[in-house]
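Give me structure tokens for this 187-residue protein.
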Amino acid sequence: MRTVFIIHGAYGNPGENWFPWLKEKLEKLGCNVYVPKFPTPEGQTLENWMKVFKDYKKYLNEDTIVVGHSLGPVFLLRVIEKLDKPIKAAFFVASVARQLGIPRFDKINKTFLDKGFDWDKIKQNCKRFYVYNSDNDPYVPLVLGKELAEKLDADLIVIKGAGHFNEKTGYTEFHELLEKLEKLINN
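Here you go.
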């Protein structure tokens, strides 16, 4: 049975945006879906998020797919960097691999981004990457999505008018993402 993780971002939680909708759709496809809750903004550090994730690591294997939103992909990059065996795929939505230049976020995201990434190791530990960004994200400019996609040798999937892919911009469902996930799950 395929395992899928959905990882929220800073100031986020498992019950927001398109996460509950996607979890339900993937479970109907026969997947085990985990949507951990991480401390944010209070107690938001890489170390604290790793402590929460410690109990989930046993579900990471060659059939695992991870999905992250906003800071979620940055956390997932740190997880993937440390794996002993590769996972199947990673879907990164509205994310970056460096500070945003927005003090409110840069302060609480610091421990996730204060050292460089081992891009070669990350690419060895995940077979496929998909990077989604919007052309009007108020936090993550499209150029930062392009940078991340280039570092991962991934295609950048640009969705027009999606903002930060959150409830505020109408994202309680994410059909384009589900379509790609269904193709991977059925292969």
